[in-house]
């Protein structure tokens, strides 16, 4: 057996290694496909994401082994390959790190697809932070393995970080603004928000900017630091919609005003679409120039805008019917002229 190995040329060894790597690649692919077919029949989709995540790194690891062993075969003939081996022997660490990052992305995709109480923006944020921390930790470990001083690198990084902080303070404020949005949750993706400067639906909360789609369908990109300096209203999180109307009748109908307001109030208290746990008021408010004004104030059960408009329409028509029933009229601007003969 030893004589046989000694008679094999380096090129024959590489050929044999290629056959072994190719066979291992095909075998691994068959095994992973078989596992994927089995896991696709289960209700839990997490295993599908994990199998899909680890498949490419494992295959790359097989072919890297082929390259590494091939270089080892020729290292006695080509001296420079000895130095090459010294540096590439850390590649499996990066390949494994790649696999871990892909697995974290698979878990992230699973949590986003699954209907859970975890906010999707929070899942994306913490997934990205975890990936960055893992990559930095692995990179520092490899640098230490290659003989570089990690403490010196960190010291230089600290000084450089101060310089970069002054140079990119706006960018950093936007990044921290994004973190505050994720932590405080004033709004989430899909929410309808508005302020004095913009109004629309949140499409994406990024590291630096938040993309909002206005009701005219134009995208607006807002730096995250802006949200720390302006008040933000989130109408999509409202619990009720408000009906707040001023109804005006003629001065000639002042005697009917108390009974009209009383019937309107009773109508609202019996209305199935009005939330009776909220404030409900009907009260005389103002002697206007040509009308007697009274307020109608109530909250609907629905927050859907279309349904709210229909409910409000029915209530306003009912108010008009009550006014007409008592032979009163809704006022409109008028003037009375007294002509002296």
TrEMBL record:
GO molecular function: mechanosensitive monoatomic ion channel activity
Record-annotated membrane-spanning stretches: 14-36, 57-74, 80-101, 122-142, 148-168
A GO cellular component annotation in the UniProt record: plasma membrane
SUPFAM superfamilies: Mechanosensitive channel protein MscS (YggB), C-terminal domain (SSF82689), Mechanosensitive channel protein MscS (YggB), transmembrane region (SSF82861), Sm-like ribonucleoproteins (SSF50182)
Domain of life per record: Bacteria
Key word NADP present: no
Keyword NAD attributed: no
Domain spans labelled Mechanosensitive ion channel MscS: 170-232
Localisation: Cell membrane
Primary localisation category: membrane
InterPro entries named among the record's database cross-references: LSM_dom_sf (IPR010920), MS_channel_1st (IPR049142), MS_channel_C (IPR049278), MscS_beta-dom_sf (IPR023408), MscS_channel_2nd (IPR006685), MscS_channel_C_sf (IPR011066), MscS_channel_TM-2 (IPR011014), YnaI-like (IPR045042)
Location of the Mechanosensitive ion channel transmembrane helices 2/3 domain: 129-169
Residues covered by the Mechanosensitive ion channel MscS C-terminal domain: 246-330
Gene3D superfamilies: 1.10.287.1260, 2.30.30.60, 3.30.70.100
Membrane topology of this protein: Multi-pass membrane protein
Keyword terms of this UniProt record: Cell membrane, Membrane, Transmembrane, Transmembrane helix
Similarity comment: Belongs to the MscS (TC 1.A.23) family.
Cross-referenced PANTHER family: LOW CONDUCTANCE MECHANOSENSITIVE CHANNEL YNAI (PTHR43634:SF2), OW CONDUCTANCE MECHANOSENSITIVE CHANNEL (PTHR43634)
Protein name in the entry: Mechanosensitive ion channel family protein
Originating organism: Candidatus Ruthia endofausta
């Amino acid at each position: 057996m030893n004589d046989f190995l000694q008679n094999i040329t380096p090129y024959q060894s590489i050929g044999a290694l290629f056959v072994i790597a190719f066979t291992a690649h095909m075998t691994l692919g068959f095994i992973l496909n078989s596992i994927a077919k089995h896991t696709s029949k289960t209700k839990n989709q997490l295993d599908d994401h994990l199998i899909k995540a680890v498949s490419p790194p494992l295959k790359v690891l097989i072919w890297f082994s082929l390259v590494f062993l091939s270089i080892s075969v020729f290292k006695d003939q080509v001296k420079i390959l000895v130095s090459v081996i010294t540096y590439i022997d850390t590649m499996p660490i990066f390949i494994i790190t790649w696999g871990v990052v892909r697995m974290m992305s698979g878990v992230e995709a699973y949590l986003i697809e699954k209907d859970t109480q975890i906010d999707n923006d929070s899942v994306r944020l913490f997934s990205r932070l975890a990936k960055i921390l893992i990559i930095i930790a692995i990179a520092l470990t490899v640098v230490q393995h290659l003989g570089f001083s990690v403490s010196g690198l960190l010291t230089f990084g600290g000084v450089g970080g101060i310089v970069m902080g002054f140079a990119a303070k706006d960018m950093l404020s936007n990044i921290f603004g994004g973190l505050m949005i994720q932590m405080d949750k004033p709004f989430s993706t899909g929410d309808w928000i508005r302020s004095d400067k913009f109004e629309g639906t949140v499409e994406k909360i990024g590291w630096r900017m938040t993309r909002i789609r206005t009701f005219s369908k134009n995208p607006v990109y807002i730096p995250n630091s802006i949200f720390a300096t302006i008040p933000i209203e989130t109408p999509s999180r409202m619990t009720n919609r408000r009906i707040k109307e001023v109804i005006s009748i003629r001065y000639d109908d002042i005697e009917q005003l108390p009974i009209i307001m009383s019937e309107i109030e009773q109508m609202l208290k019996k209305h199935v679409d009005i939330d009776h746990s909220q404030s409900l008021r009907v009260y005389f408010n103002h002697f206007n120039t040509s009308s007697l004004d009274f307020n109608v104030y109530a909250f609907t059960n629905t927050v859907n805008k279309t349904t709210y408009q229909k409910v409000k329409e029915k209530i306003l028509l009912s108010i008009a019917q009550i006014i007409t029933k008592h032979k009163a009229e809704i006022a409109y601007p008028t003037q009375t002229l007294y002509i002296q003969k």
